[in-house]
Structure prediction request, 124 residues.
Amino acid sequence: MNTTATIAAIATASGAGGIGIVRVSGPHALSLLKTLFHPAGKEKALRPWMLRRGKIVDKDGAVLDDALAVAMPGPKTFTGEDVAAVASEWTGVPVRQITQDGGERLLHLQLGLSIKQLESLLRS
Prediction:
């Protein structure tokens, strides 16, 4: 597939459930994962294809939830693109928050928008 867009989407059904998964795919997927997910333990690097436990943080650095995450660099993915996945035990608010924060960061990365421009765009 290999496009220039990076997309973030909720990969599980909406509503109450035991787990919520967010997948990010595209050229900024792995850098976005590094800003949204902080691995637990001494080793802070995310190694490819290794599932890690850690914390999901919002754009201000506040912890949203414990989670599992995996970084899958292309071209050895189904689409050939870089892919990141985060599995949160909470569904609903944290999963939507991950996607919202991720979407804001993607707009900033892809369009080079300033924070004020992003805020006005998101309000409209």
Notes: Residues 109-115 have pLDDT under 50 and may be disordered. The helical segments are 29-36, 93-111, 115-123. The domain at 7-123 is CATH 3.30.1360.120 (Gyrase A; domain 2). Residues 93-111 form the longest helix (19 residues).
